[in-house]
Design brief:
Number of strands of chain C: 12
Order of helices and strands of chain C: EHEEHEEHEHHHEEEHEEHEHHH
Distance between the termini of chain C: 42 Å
Helix content of chain C: 25-40%
Chains: A alpha/beta, B alpha/beta, C alpha/beta
CATH architecture of the largest domain in chain C: 3-Layer(aba) Sandwich
Oligomer: heterotrimer
Radius of gyration of chain B: 21 Å
Structural class of chain B: alpha/beta
Number of helices of chain C: 11
Strand content of chain B: 15-25%
Order of helices and strands of chain B: EHEHEHEHHEHEHEEHEHEEHEEHEHEHE
Number of helices of chain B: 13
Shape of chain C: globular
CATH topology of the largest domain in chain B: Rossmann fold
CATH class of the largest domain in chain B: Alpha Beta
Shape of chain B: globular
Strand order of the largest sheet of chain C: 2-3-1-4-5-6-7
Radius of gyration of chain C: 22 Å
Helix content of chain B: 25-40%
Largest interface: A-C, 65 and 64 residues
CATH superfamily of the largest domain in chain B: Thiamin diphosphate (ThDP)-binding fold, Pyr/PP domains
Distance between the termini of chain B: 59 Å
CATH class of the largest domain in chain C: Alpha Beta
Amino acid sequence: MTTVQDLPQVKGVKNIPLEEQFTSGHRTCQGCESALVMRLMIKAAGPRTIVLGSTGCMYVANTTYYSTPWVVPWMHTQLGSSGSAATGTAAGLSSLMRKGKMHQEPINVIAFCGDGGGADMGLSAISAALQHDEYNLLILMYDNESYANTDIQVSGSSPWGANSTFSPPGKVHRIMNKRWKKNTAPMLATGHPDVRYVATACGSYGLDFTNKIRRALTIGGPTFIHSIDPCPKGWDYDPKFSHELGMLAVETGLWVQYEIIDGEVILNGPSRAIARGIRKRKPITDYLTRQGRFAHMNEEDHKFFQERVDESWEKWWIPGIIPFSPKEQ
Amino acid sequence: MTTVETQLFQTETEDLISGSEAIAIACALADVDVITAYPIRPYDTVMQYVSKLKADGVFDCDFIVAESEHSQFEIVKHASAVGARTFSGSSGVGWFYAFEAITVTAGLRMPVVAMVGNRALDDPGAFGTEHNDALAVRDLGWMLYWVATAQEALDTALLAWRVAEDPNVLLPMAISCDGSFLTHSQAIVKVPASEQVRKYLPPYDRGKLQLHPDNPITVAPQVNEDWLMEIRRQSDEAMKRSVGVIQEAYQEFKEEFGRGDPSPFIEQYMAEDADIILVGMGTLALPVKVAIRRLREQGTKVGFVRVKFFRPFATEELRQALGHSKAVCVIDRDYSYGSPSFGGVLFHEMKSALYSLETRPLMLNFIAGLGGREVRVRDVNQIVEFGQQAMATGKIEQETTWIGVRE
Amino acid sequence: MSTVAVEVVYRGIFQKSLARNIVRNIVFAARKDGKIGTAFGRYGDSPERNGIPAKQFAVVADDPEELDEILAQYEPTEVDVTINVDDTMCKGVESWAWYGLQPINQLTKTDGTLIVTSRQDADSLIRDMHQKDSPFGLSIVKSTVSFSGLWVYKDDHTDVRILGNLCSICPQLVSLDSMLETIREQMGSETKVASAQKAYDIAVVRSVEPGEGNPETPYTFELPGWKSMEEGVVIRAIEPGGGFRGGDSGYQPVRSEVFKKYSTRSMRPVINFETCIKCTLCWLQCPDTCFDVTPDGLYDANMESCCGCGVCEAVCPVPDCVTMVGEPDFEDNNSQWEMWQKDKEGYNQWMMALVDKQKAETRSHGFHHVGGYADEIATTEEAS
């Protein structure tokens, strides 16, 4: 196993590296949090990195032939291939270095996927990648809660009831998407207990995000990070509120910020404050009324949503992570 | 150079092995870096042999059992991007499960070498050989080769890395091996020494296209209608260049290893003065040649042209080999429902290749050997009879005939 | 032959429904006049992104054969009317289906008309537009620019006002009667019919002569052919950045030469360098890597890259330190920090005047909360 790079934890925003590995000139929406996630991710990882980008907004909007925002080497991969791309890249580098065909050095391998390409189509490949202890790699799933690049369709990670071109509220059916968002990070963590690092993240918390990327890249072995990315186009809001809505998702308890490091669960930021009772969860209505994709929802819908969030915090063994509890205490 | 010292392959040896094992040995000789496996019959015998070679330390590679064929081919594609020599393979619908990955591998110009253990497509499930699986990628930029013997399997694999990785080519190559006949039956094969192979195969070097922090590039950004034709034209040009590269590489192979045909693209058997020439691919060559030998003894002027490289297609060589004949009988171990002659793929390609001849031979199509059904000597005799009939009347009664089918 | 082509140039996603309403109703109305037509968007613009300029077209002809002639080229090479529903796009547009900066009047025929929704006057709009070799007309629909989103439409009558105006300035396209009838049928609202009628009544055209407007040449570049393109679908990455303005301290990334994105913005941030506490948040949270880091640790938004999302304003903890102000008030993409360095007093005055102006204006940028649009419409109506 090749060694890892020296990427120390950053203490304080002022110490976040100035160097940009992802610059201007991409065709994303105004206020695209996923683009911000890309920028922060690679800023944290540094120039000795290879990025594999699966099809989605962060492919099509960022890299349109003849222009690219990437300073580091970057290669496209298929929609469901983030796991296999990471494995293949890591295996290629590992084999060549071990056999003396390539100069030995730790090179970060990061493959990113959207919620559609990752949690839906690419789940099997990600799972397989996470079984390969011998490879250091990071799979980052940026979750804007839809298939966004194809003009917004619901995925397995879309919220219940959200408007999309596959789930429009109509005269007979108000709620077309009845699936509750699947819980991908805990699913992967519990299913692959040898994986040393699984985390959730949010671009609104820039320092926390930076350090999570660095922890994933330096702990060794395959790792996984799931970030929630407010999307002005799909969620329908004035782009300047991207940062605010990310925080609101956390402050309402809908999105839980945590890390699972070598088998220990650590809640971060507002999520920790909520768990400790220091902070009250904001009502989910505050979150739902700020987005056009929920504008068709009524009181009943809001109530249902709130109940689901309450359940996660009040009944689950670990809120947002483990939904079961033993019958016998 | 590999860091694993091996006792095997110090000198040229002989062994009794199947086509699958021959290709596995070729992987070891070629010092392949990353190999991905997924179980499906009949190709996966090659991966069973590879895993044994790795486990015994005969060569060093990252051998990854993927969780699906799609991932299998994605993994080697990406390993190839960073400069690793790669090998993978599949059969039938497994190959189809990987289709997305297979398609982009060619578009990205990754010189992956794959073995296709030709197998009938589901449904119904069947393990027997048919050529439709590998044929399906014929338009996409893969080089395609049909081998007939275990020896040829080994030799072609070595040729494959040489040609595919050539900086003027950089296209993937699929080596088609008839399921069962090649994958599971054994023959005497000359196995070269690893030193000979090291001399023959230069290291794989992507140069300015290498994905590595020392060479920051963006590979395959999204394109629109302003760019795609130019990119496709580049692949077209690469495939055209492959013809010269193949000729050179094959010639060098013959010089280094002392065996090979006059042409890398086709094999001619008793065809120079034949009136009726049969055309086919893969292991059916054996019963065809046996039948032809016997017919020749009886004075029938019949011959056989075996198509080896299906892509790039050797149009000119085939015109020269077949132009003088009166009747051409193409044997398709595949089918193409609803095609112009309701026949097979090879027939239609042959017809198109021979169209511009001044005098065109009569052309007949025979669907045979599907699903692993044997092509027997008497089937070949029957085919020759059809050819003779056509020659005698100067007309074609029925363009496509299904051979050996119970009514 | 009398085919008439109309293009609607709009802000992607924000004005997608608006553009669609306009082009479709043109075709429906033309049908009532006994003509035939079609409406479509540019495939190359798809998928649309918030703010990135896009186009939809309506093409009307007397009969199917004439229609075929104009549609044989998928995108019209010239149009009778260009409708620009965000006046900041008068500065030119860079979209995905075009390389470089395209003047807003690029496709407008000789003696065609450019309709712009704006609160500015004709002279300031003309100053923004690139000069054209041929004359054309400019007609302003006086209105705050209308922004919505994908799921909730801001129904502020901008669509029908434009349609009303269109009937006046391009009578050969469609008759007012047919248009009003179409609006009645398609939208089922008499108030909308009235809005359209009013827009028709007050429509004026001011002619723009060759030589009027912005004399700059909009940037373009040549597309290479397959022989000079690299193989393997490879393009070179962006170079790593370096010190601020090439110096030893601060930081400035290298930016794309071929896609600049500044034509995406309708607002831009102005920064008060003196109240800035250097918290880093604007720099850190900008999805477009716009902020150059100055040697004194301040953050200077690069105006070639800024697409005007407003996140910097939203995250800045200091009141009035970063303020999004209307794009029309600017003639260039100059660095604000450099301006401030040269003349601190002058810069501060200029900057604060813009901040004050913004407080009085009502240029909005999309959805804030359920029911928000109704509030905005009410406020705007009160204001006018």
